[in-house]
Design a protein that fits this description.
The structure is a homodimer of 334-residue chains. By secondary structure, chain A is of the alpha/beta class. The first copy, chain A, contains 13 helices and twelve strands. Chain A is elongated. Chain A binds a DNA duplex (30 and 30 nucleotides) through helix 2 and helix 4.
Chain lengths: 334, 334
DNA sequence: GGGGGTTCGTCATACGTATTACTTCCCGTC
DNA sequence: GACGGGAAGTAATACGTATGACGAACCCCC
């Protein structure tokens, strides 16, 4: 016999019935199977290297113990961290995590191109953990329990979000205390809650500052594009004394724009980022930014989702967005 | 009826038997079902929103159409790209991809802690795509078709690897042509084929250079640690004129070590990386490095694995590692 | 008009598991 | 010695699909 051993093989080897094997290995044998036979069964399973067939189990139980993590761009350190946190919590509860890269070419287009109702692994799922893409995701997985990540907590679906407004306020306060008044905002051109939130908080904070002014340029999240956008702000006659960027990657672009114009950071210009990516400490000078604990986002999101799957309704949780002051911010020159 | 519709429901709605539904939707009905009934069935399936139950299908077919991607650290842009390439090819063949973060806390420790033979989704798998961790991975998935990524092509399992030696040679030639003779190697302290390969190629190339000298410092792949290692090389009396780093991230550390000592890049010191991460263009000056097409690695690896699953034996493929010259290298001052 | 082929379907079954209902055995008690 | 009852284990079944073995029409042609 070269095929994978089944519970029936174990039963035969142990001299019992298949049901007994299932009971013992399932852990629900107390008072139904004698400790002695239980041991025999476990020993036989061990010896044969038995591993339960997942497909059969799933079919029988009607559950997969798998959740889908929907991410816009898997090749980012941020979502790598989210994944890690989520997978950690999931594993602790016997759940697995499957990644679904949302808008990339791997998307649903290919799947339906298979002809007929084609089921990809992403359909064998108990729940969905989705980041920042509310509308579309909910459309495709409408009848599946879902938790949103870093989305509007006021929405219909349970959400775990960063307190990005807090973070932005803390950042603005730090800059205000340094003496900055003319702010430039290098904003992400993405229609997502978190960016609207950041923009709103910054605008409010600057408006509350005596003599505060705010100019804005938008770009996609990319070094080159951000450099260009930052350049537009720096070329204004009333050049800002600080560039607040929506992302660390964009801050790297701002660095380049500044240096191309002979501006020293932080002496001539302060720059800030958002996320606290590896990049933040790789840049020179090291970047003042707002730390978003991505791994924790994944972990808390998964916790909430598991609660949801368990029938309990998870309380909405908010994660801190903490200011990290490094070397890219200083008082403006007079 | 509120539950998920089954093929039997579709059959009833279309006024045919379950087998007919299965035949039609499976696409194997030519000569067995009339085009008219086929249309009826498809229409009914559409109307009910029928999606096949994956667990049942897997059980019946004894296959999961899923492959496992084993990665050491999912929170890196490199493996994100590998994943994307792999998932793309997989989807085109109706396969899904599940990620298994290898040595992290999510590992097998937790799984066995569940008590009894606990099956995680990572076991319902047709094949394994594993990167750089040969020995251990093969231990756990010994009876599963596997393809290695970026590992020794001479090994027993089929492999798709970068021609890192070529890349390193091209890099050394570039530096030699600029006039460099005293090389510093900031090497990754990881016991992986790719790093041995890089080190060997560099040593050979430098040795072949008239008057070539090579000093080496190792560190883990991390900005801070690399900065420290690079510093050790820069503090030598016979300071190297160029630091060749095993990774872009380590090059960032080298930048910091150089700047801490008042050395200008590339005037006083040339620095090179490896990988061509986003980081490479985010740094200033932009980093001369060797590009490893990570996405292609995933794609080719998946292609090979699918061939393997198909019974064919894949020819070992090697991917180019191409030199990318940017602004961090120049001729040494005399 | 009956044999043989083609077309269109259906019946029955198996995949491997978890669980409910049931049988068997044995012991203590009146 | 009959009987209640717990302990230990088993038989049977269902989950939803894919497919090989069977039928039942229908047509063609000798």
């Amino acid at each position: 016999m070269t095929r994978r051993p089944t519970s029936r093989d174990v039963a035969q080897a142990a001299g019992v019935s298949q049901s007994t094997v299932s009971l013992v290995l399932g852990g629900k044998w107390h008072g139904r199977v004698s400790p002695a036979t239980a041991r025999t069964v476990r020993r036989a399973a061990e010896r044969l290297g038995y591993r339960p067939n997942l497909a059969a189990r799933n079919l029988r139980l009607g559950t997969t113990r798998t959740v889908l993590l929907v991410v816009p761009t898997p090749s980012s350190t941020f979502f790598g961290a989210v994944y890690t946190g989520a997978a950690e919590v999931a594993a602790r509860h016997g759940f697995g995590v499957v990644v679904y890269p949302w808008p990339d070419d791997t998307g649903s287009g290919d799947a339906s191109a298979q002809g007929g109702p084609f089921a990809s692994p992403r359909e064998a799922i108990d729940g969905v953990l989705a980041s920042s893409l509310a509308v579309e995701v909910l459309k495709e997985f409408s009848h599946t329990p879902a938790v949103m990540l870093d989305n509007d907590p006021a929405g219909a679906t349970p959400t775990v979000a960063f307190a990005v407004a807090d973070g932005m306020r803390a950042l603005a306060a730090h800059l205000g205390a340094l003496g900055h008044r003319r702010f430039g905002h290098v904003a992400a051109a993405a229609d997502q809650w978190t960016f609207h939130e950041r923009g709103g908080a910054l605008a409010a904070a600057v408006a509350a500052l005596p003599g505060g002014e705010l100019v804005r340029a938008t770009s996609v999240i990319d070094v080159g594009a951000a450099k260009e956008a930052a350049g537009r702000l720096l070329d204004r006659p009333d050049r800002p004394t600080v560039l607040v960027c929506d992302d660390d990657l964009m801050a790297a672009g701002a660095y380049k724009a500044a240096r191309a114009r002979g501006l020293d950071i932080p002496r001539d210009l302060s720059v800030t980022g958002f996320d606290d990516d590896v990049l933040a400490t790789a840049l020179e000078p090291e970047l003042t930014t707002v730390r978003l604990p991505a791994r924790r986002l994944g972990a808390e999101g998964m916790t909430a989702l598991l609660q949801l799957l368990d029938g309990r309704s998870p309380e909405p949780r908010s994660l801190p967005a903490e200011l990290v002051v490094r070397a890219s911010t200083a008082s403006p020159r007079h």
